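Fold this: LysR family transcriptional regulator
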Amino acid sequence: MNLNRIDLNLFAVFDAIYTAGNLTRAADILCITQPAVSNSLARLRDLLNDPLFVRTGHTMSPTPVAQNLIGPARQALELLRTSVLQSREFNPEVAEKTFQFACRDLIEASILPRLIAKIEAQAPAITITNYDIDKKQVVNALASGQLDFYADSETLTDQYLARHKIAEDRLVVVGRPEHPAFSDPLTMESFLTYGHIKVSQRQDQASEVDIELSKLGHQRRIAMQSHHFLTIPSVLVKTDLLACLPSHLAKHYNLAVSELPFALQPLDYYVYWHVSANEDPAHRWVRQQLIDIAQAFLSPPLNQHAA
């Protein structure tokens, strides 16, 4: 038997004929035409090399092969029905599933821990993983199911990606506590006096800060470059270097904080997922938890001169 030829719909027709004992009544059960039932029966007979039903008066009587097949067929159909129902419903208390995240910086430090705590309380059998991924691989990873969520300030455009803005933040200047640059309101002169830590994914990639400074005719001295915001605070507390961090990330650390001495566009953070997961109940539930936590935590930041 060629398993590639098996059509599960044929076994639903087989079950209906076995139950009804008549092609017309089977068609009524399935809400299809009698010729469609006859065609399905012919295909199943060919597949199994057995007549399955023989006419006895006005009744279709099952053959021994059909009698042996009906039990497993009904079990398989019931399992399929149950699986379909479960895929449409989601009970977080008993659900067992792993969700793959790729989040960086603000989301990883501020939102993900709160999401995991909430899931642990409401859905203890759900597992969250978070790993780094090259931006070029995100779309394929989401499409293949290797990745469930991608969250960052990066802007991705693909017809098969859905997104939701979960946060808005702004960059602030940070340095070690008691840093002399923060003794008075931070000026452009003070900002440029000290060396800086630049955050960039690539060595030759200009940051938004440096692009804006160039427009204003200024250039800061880069003393260190990092690909990740989370490594910066441990360097700042041991040096007189400055850095520009998202405000909601900066407040996690014991650092001096000031507004930038020039205007810069806010940071928008998005969560992305593949459109195929739009209506998946489990995915929707986790997605909503993430959105709710982000909205609750990321209230508008306070303007402050120093922390």
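Confidence is low (pLDDT under 50) at residues 301-307. The radius of gyration is 31 Å.
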